[in-house]
Amino acid sequence: MTDRTDADEPADEAPSIGPEELAERLRSGDELTVLDVRNRDEFERWHLTGDGVDAVQVPHAKFIQAQATGRVTELVADLEEPILAVCGRGEASAHAVGLLREAGIDASNLTGGMDAWAELYTARELEVDAPATVVQYDRPSSGCLAYAVYSGGEAAVIDPLRAFADRYAEDADDRRAELTYAIDTHVHADHVSGVRSLGDRTGATAVVPAGATDRGLAFDAATLEDGDELRVGDATLTVLATPGHTTESVSLRLEGDSETLFTGDTLFLEGVGRPDLERGDEGAVDAARRLYGTIQNRLLAQPAETTIAPGHYSDAAEPRADGTYAATLTDLRDRLAALSMDEAAFVAHATSDLPPRPENHERIVAANLGLEAVDQETAFELELGPNNCAVAD
Question: pTM of the predicted model, to two decimals?
Fold first, then answer.
């Protein structure tokens, strides 16, 4: 890490913004110049992105050198002000901000740095027409979404993150609800699952798709088959097998006057799930064909006004007025060209020009199957960065 803790900081308190304010600015599509003072490898692994974000890497060592030579302004001569400086924990960037402001440049610091950004987790209620309250959890640093369904004093969490297991439990306590289920829609490749942690913390039943056993599931869990139902208080979650992104992927339908479908990594607001994470490039075409069948015969067969609640969103996604990321099936039909392609065109689309796979996806999958034990610090490091689980439209 490049954070500086020396006593010769030019300012004890650099002007700063917190992770929450940064999230709102990114959500609003504000233009943002980001100066990242971490080392090149850290920057290339993961940095701030978004519509309107211009992120530039200048290592902190250069600011230390420029402090001695008085040439700080040369380091940012091509950057548009105001500038937001970031680093790992907010210390090296605070030093850089102090130097920039002494030179008359409008700059501020991200409080707590990228570590604090990764730890930000927001919660908003998702409007549903069902005998339940649904909370959408959002990790802005990765666009990763999870959900809690509350009804009749009980709760289920869908696609929980291990890093925030305590948060789900505390929120359920605040609502005086018993956490009965912790459910994964598939074996995740971008983040470490919280189903076992929640089970240990609360006694909730860990639930995974039945097909996870074929992938080597190595811990005790209840399994879900197509058509199974889970009761959560007065609400019902019905299992819909939706293979393609992975062989075992399922979606969960919250029954109501207007249905809500939690689609995991099968269908997003900006595209569909990528088909190459489970079996690599050699298995991607067959997986894409399965995904095509899932979309055409299963998802698009749902009522037109079904609310799609995805497992991720990208920088291109626009939140609804209430700040949540969801859309009706009708909206997605109109928005996503992939939903109206024939099979050949869809397979070509889903297997071409894919982004890099999540950096540590093989170890994350092993951890989520119970095949590898990782401690909390290692888990946090493994899942940093973009999820890259989608094929953008």
Answer: 0.93
